[in-house]
């Protein structure tokens, strides 16, 4: 379904937005009311067991990871849905019974499909409870020939595994990234596995001068301004900040991975140090690898330098944050040198 239809739905059916922690109680309440309204489809025992199953911790994790959406109408929270990246599943789609039949659920569903596309997913799975199978069929999902999910069985509610291809919803760039993953034999669920979104390639770039290898480097204009100001401020404090690498295209990342494959490295080892094409922050023109004047580039030991200490203290003021601290949620190795410009 084209994005314009989604926008129309949102206009006529309230708004769909990312959930925040403050929404949790209202989300749980919508879930309980929605399950409670299914008395024609299930026995009271089943409904009670379903309602008593505590999803709050699971849901809070989703909200925290920005993987949950809510719908609002009449200044009320009337629907919710979430994306389980580990299972590549749409989960917890509920609409307040008083607002059913108005397209709220479908607006949530479509928006979640777009979110799944942002993580590079080409297929979205779900477990349809019996009352919802015909609805999901109408919205493009088909029965999936696999064993039944443990999660819904644990609720005591019979369910049908379903799925749909997201190919028609992906933009051409997302389609290109999926093809590249396949061509390079990289895992199709790379983005989902690492909680990484596809980064569009920047198109308006400006020079920030040469890196330590005498190659010209570029960033988005706002990021370039911020970087040059930060570099000068550090210099005034007696700290040299040097560039190792800034903008990198998808083609560059593809070449890098191909060269490593040709040298006999296995995909798993390559992906420990290089992002899959499409998922590197360097495509965005906002990421910069930094070193100091007294250390080897791209070594963890950078964290012991005065340059790193200066960055930890001051970079936030210039709009830069450390993307991959120790034990980051992406499962990416600690990179004290890699900084990302977050401001608009
Ligand atoms: Zn980097």
Note down, in words, how this protein is organized.
- The chain has 2 domains: 3-165, Gcn5-related N-acetyltransferase (GNAT) (Aminopeptidase, 3-Layer(aba) Sandwich), CATH 3.40.630.30; 191-341, Muramoyl-pentapeptide Carboxypeptidase, domain 2, CATH 3.30.1380.
- Mean pLDDT is 91; it is low at 1-9.
- Helix 2 (24-36) runs antiparallel to helix 3.
- The strands form 3 sheets. Strands 1-2-3-4-5-7-6 form a 7-stranded mixed β-sheet.
- 38% of the residues lie in helices and 19% in strands.
- With 344 residues, it is of the alpha+beta class.
- The protein binds zinc ion.
- Zinc ion is lined by residues 282, 287, 289, 338.
Oligomer: single chain
Helix content range: 25-40%
Contiguous low-pLDDT stretches (5 residues minimum) are 1-9
Compute the number of structural domains.
2
How many β strands by DSSP? 13
Strand content: 15-25%
Q: Given this structure, which CATH class of the largest domain is correct?
A: Alpha Beta
Name the strands of the widest sheet in spatial order: 1-2-3-4-5-7-6
H and E order = HEHHHEEEHEHEHEHHEEHEHHEHEE
Bound molecules: zinc ion
The CATH architecture name of the largest domain reads 3-Layer(aba) Sandwich
Q: Assign the structural class, choosing from mainly alpha, mainly beta, alpha/beta, alpha+beta, or little secondary structure.
A: alpha+beta
Instruction: Say which CATH homologous superfamily of the largest domain is assigned.
Output: Gcn5-related N-acetyltransferase (GNAT)
């Amino acid at each position: 379904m084209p994005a314009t239809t989604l926008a129309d739905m949102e206009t006529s059916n309230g708004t769909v937005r990312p959930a925040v922690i403050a929404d949790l109680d209202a989300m749980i309440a919508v879930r309980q009311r929605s399950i409670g309204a299914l008395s024609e489809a299930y026995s009271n025992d089943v409904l009670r067991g379903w309602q008593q199953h505590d999803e709050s911790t699971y849901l809070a994790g989703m909200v925290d990871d920005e993987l949950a959406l809510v719908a609002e109408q009449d200044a009320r929270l009337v629907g919710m849905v979430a994306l389980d990246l580990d299972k590549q599943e749409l989960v917890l789609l509920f609409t307040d019974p008083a607002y059913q039949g108005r397209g709220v659920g479908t607006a949530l569903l479509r928006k979640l499909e777009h979110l799944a596309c942002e993580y590079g997913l080409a297929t979205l799975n779900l477990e349809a409870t019996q009352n919802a199978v015909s609805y999901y069929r109408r919205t493009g999902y088909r029965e999936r020939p696999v064993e039944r999910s443990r999660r819904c069985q644990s609720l005591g509610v019979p369910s049908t595994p379903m799925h749909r291809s997201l190919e028609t919803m992906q933009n051409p760039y997302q389609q290109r990234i999926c093809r590249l993953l396949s061509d390079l034999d990289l895992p199709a669920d790379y983005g989902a596995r690492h909680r990484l979104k596809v980064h569009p390639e920047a198109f308006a770039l400006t020079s920030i001068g040469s890196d330590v290898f005498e190659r010209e480097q570029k960033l988005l204009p706002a990021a370039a301004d911020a970087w040059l100001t930060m570099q000068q401020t550090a210099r005034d404090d007696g700290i040299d900040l040097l560039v190792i690498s800034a903008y990198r295209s998808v083609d560059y990342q593809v070449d890098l991975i191909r060269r490593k494959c040709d040298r006999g490295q296995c995909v798993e080892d390559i992906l420990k140090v290089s992002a899959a094409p499409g998922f590197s922050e360097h495509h965005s023109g906002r990421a910069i690898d930094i070193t100091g004047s007294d250390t080897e580039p791209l070594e963890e030991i950078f964290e012991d330098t005065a340059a790193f200490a200066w960055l930890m203290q001051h970079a936030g003021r210039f709009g830069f944050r450390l993307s991959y601290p120790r034990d980051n949620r992406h499962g990416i190795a600690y990179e004290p040198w890699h900084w990302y410009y977050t401001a608009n």
